[in-house]
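As a warm-up, study this chain.
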Amino acid sequence: EEVRPYLSPQGTLVVFDVDMVLLHSREPAFQMPNMIAHRSLARDLMEGLSRVEKDLLLNLMITQSELELIEEKMPQFVRELKEKEIPALALTGILSGGLESIPDMTSWRVESLKSFGYDFSYSFPEVPPTTLEHFSKAFDSYPKYAEGVLITNGSSGSYTKGDVLITFFELAAYH
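Now compare it with the structure written out below.
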């Protein structure tokens, strides 16, 4: 509700982080308020892990537990953005390739968002599904874009979410 007065079709782009913002695990141990409350346990669990192992653990937490909406009103808010012709982009740090029983995390993420009523595909219809191959490969894959969802492919690479977002803007000729 706080951002509504600032939204207009001219010059506005809304970027949503996905995990722990739009969706989170139904498992209480994997929900942000509990992770914050038990910070020392989470820190101890992650302490001996490499960046790659941390990425794998976080992705397994997301994919192997049932997800739920954080805010019941958010899918409707995204639909309102579409009606007002305000572009919106989902940005997530999950992996983009295959993981365990999920052969394509990009498709899995797009479909999981749609299953909760989130559809970002209206925002950049001229941009086809794209693999951003000029970034370094991580987990045998690259950052990817599909249907309004930009996947940065973890944090173990030599780039940030911001780097991937800027590259996407260049690709989409968004100024």
